[in-house]
Each structure stands twice: as C-alpha cells, then as structure tokens.
Amino acid sequence: MDPKILLFFAIFMAVVGQLLMKTGLNQLGALNEINVSVFFKMIFQPFVFGGIFCYGIGFIAYLFALTKLDQSFAYPMFALGYVLVPVFNWVVFHEPFSVLRLVGIFLVLGGVTLISR
C-alpha cells in the first residue's frame, strides 16, 4: 500500500479519535476530581474507548508508513490534525470558529506545505 495513504489514514484516525473522546467526555460531564475510579470511568466510557482504539489503529498505520517515508516528512504532516479537529469541532460540536482561528489554520497549512517540499 502507498505509504502516503497510510500516513493520511493515521492522521484521519487521530482526528476521529479526538472527536470520539470529546463526545464521550461530553456525555460524562465535567469531572471535578482525579482518582482511579474516575480514570476508569473515563477510559471505559464507550466513545472514549473507541477514540483510544482509533488512536491505536492510526499508530499502527503510522508505523507502517514510517518504514517507507522520511520521518522529517511524516511527522509534521500530523499538524493537519490541528486543521481538521477545529473544523470538525465547529461542525459537530458547534464550537466557536473565529477569524483568528481561521488565520491559524492557514498558517499551519502553509507550514505543512513548506515542510512537505
């Protein structure tokens, strides 16, 4: 399989993992303490667990991609997650999306473009 496809699949899985974890944590509500019980409650919340699973699948895809790609190219591509997560959060969770955030997204895209050359 093309290693760039594996890389972008890994990035996509990281983004999906973020969205799933946020969904699960929204369902749990604000947590006011940190202890083992709360930790297990978070980890085994189905959406959070699914998000962690997506991260794992993405990590495996990233490892395979690294066997054929330069890390100096592959790792910076994960900055695309900084572009995709705010966009999906704006669409799915109706989080605010300011002009400043949009400028930041374009700066990240410009940086990724320069690094990929």
Low-confidence region ranges: none
Cα-to-Cα separation, first versus last residue: 22 Å
How many distinct helices? 6
Task: Tell me, rounded to a whole number, the average pLDDT.
Answer: 93
Number of domains: 1
Main beta sheet:
none
Q: What is the H/E order?
A: HHHHHH
Strand tally, please?
A: 0
Overall geometry comes to flat
Q: Class by helix and strand content?
A: mainly alpha
Radius of gyration: 16 Å
Strand content: under 5%
Measured as a percent range, the helix fraction is over 70%
Give a brief outline of the structure.
This protein is mostly helical. It has six helices and no strands.
Notes on the structure:
The chain is mostly helical and 117 residues long. It has one domain (3-115). Helices cover 79% and strands 0% of the residues. The chain is built from six helices and no strands. The chain has helices at 3-28, 36-43, 46-66, 71-77, 80-92, 99-115. α1 crosses α5 (80-92) and α5 packs antiparallel against α6. The chain is flat. The mean pLDDT is 93.
Characteristic terms for this protein:
117 residues, 6 helices, mainly alpha, 79% helix, single chain
Which secondary structure elements does this structure contain, and how are they paired or packed?
Blueprint: H1 3-28, H2 36-43, H3 46-66, H4 71-77, H5 80-92, H6 99-115
Helix pairs in contact: 1-3, 1-5, 5-6
